[in-house]
Design goal:
Elements: E1 6-10, H1 15-26, E2 30-35, H2 38-47, E3 53-56, H3 62-76, E4 81-84, H4 99-127, E5 130-135, H5 139-142, H6 148-168, E6 173-178, H7 193-199
């Protein structure tokens, strides 16, 4: 990874996205930290040092995504790398899950990633290269009781990422999906300790920085 490259991190203000941002900042990348909450994104960007950009975006809104990429291009230049770490969960048994909660998870976790990838690929094709990393989850591969909808969105990311990788490989654009296990973040803070121990073979939680 070369110094000075531009990386857009959606969901970069907390959890795994924030940890990725800290690592890339150390490597000399210029970052766009994108989150729904602009103030939190600004705090994260400020703590990373000078030269980084903070933006607010609802990834499920195509116009907002397009505007966000235009703003990044204007302030930082062409996008070299994209990290999709934005996501939500509404854990519940399917019979107790409200339809609006299903739609919210699908729109943010799956559609949102599709929209940001679509915008990023357009920019990367002009430069004849780039890299995209989509953050999935182990539950997208194994499933988990009470997370049927969330699991479906993360499983969808796997198929989407594999297919997109084949579409853009000739343009020198790499697409990968990472499926971490249970990581201690705000999204998993509500889980009981017993639930975590059952889900993790080693019986201990992991952290974004790891």
């Amino acid at each position: 990874m070369e110094m000075g490259k531009v990386c857009a991190i959606f969901g970069g203000s907390r959890g795994i996205g924030k940890a990725v941002a800290e690592l890339l900042a150390e490597k000399g990348c210029r970052l766009a930290i994108i989150a729904r909450n602009l103030e939190v994104a600004q705090n994260t960007a400020r703590n990373l040092g000078a030269g980084h950009l903070a933006l607010s975006c609802d990834v499920s809104n195509e116009q907002e995504v397009q505007n966000t990429f235009a703003e990044m291009q204007k302030n930082l230049g062409p996008i070299n790398y994209l990290v999709n770490a934005a996501g939500i969960n509404r854990d519940a048994l399917l019979l107790r899950t409200k339809t609006e909660d299903m739609v919210a998870q699908i729109h943010t976790n799956l559609l949102g990633t599709m929209l940001t990838c679509k915008a990023a690929v357009k920019s990367m094709m002009q430069q004849q290269g780039g890299a995209i990393v989509n953050i999935g989850s182990i539950v997208g591969l194994k499933g988990n009781s009470g997370q049927s909808v969330y699991s479906a969105t993360k499983a969808g990311l796997v198929g989407f990422s594999r297919s997109l990788a084949k579409e853009v490989a000739k343009k020198q654009i790499r697409v990968n999906v990472v499926a971490p296990g249970f990581i201690h973040t705000e999204m998993t803070a509500h889980l009981e300790e017993d639930q975590l121990k059952k889900a993790i073979l080693l019986g201990r939680k992991n952290w974004p920085e790891n």
